[in-house]
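This section describes the prediction task in plain terms. A model, or a person checking by hand, is given the sequence of a single protein chain and must write out its three-dimensional structure as a string of tokens. No templates, partner chains or ligands are provided. The sample shown here is typical of the held-out split.
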Amino acid sequence: MNPPDGGVADDLPGIAPRLRDLRRNRGLTLEGAAGRAGLSPAHLSRLETGRRQPSLPMLLGLARVYGTTVSELLGEIPPERDAVVRGGPPEGSRRGTEAGGWQYRQAGAPGRAMQALHVRVPYGTEGDLVRVHPGEEWLYVLDGRLRVVLGETVHDLDPGDSAHFDSLTPHRIAALDVGGVRLLFVHTLLQSPAAELCLGSGIHRL
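The expected answer:
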């Protein structure tokens, strides 16, 4: 049997009171929260009383409104993580990865809602690839010159410059110098299997 309203499971124990408590803790009325999430107040009320189960898009929308993750909405308890990530020679999983000439290295603890990366952007690759996805992004140029295109607006950034933007804005970045660009990059993509199921695996992520 399918869950009510296309929900993610037949039973999500505890999610109704969590939705109600999160809304109240954020100081939002039922009407205000429902409007931001694209729901009717009556529908959100039914979710908060357990008479309806939320679908995956609803969970993603409510997590965004409340400034949390789908994992928290579902009541998942994250494992203990180290607060400090040491520098020095990269070892093991910290060696990073390379895709299309871009080099990525984890600069923060994995599995958190906010992810930090040390990225090297080579010259002349993927400069025309437009990305659109939920979340926020912040980047800081360490060296080299970086072009950031947000919608129809072009920004050329020098070392020490930064950009902070909503990832739903169509965006693309490219190195302006032949030597490429090094930057620190932080994003808040939802870290949950629910996001992958809802959004699909084909989304381009920086």
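For orientation: DSSP finds six helices and nine strands in the chain.
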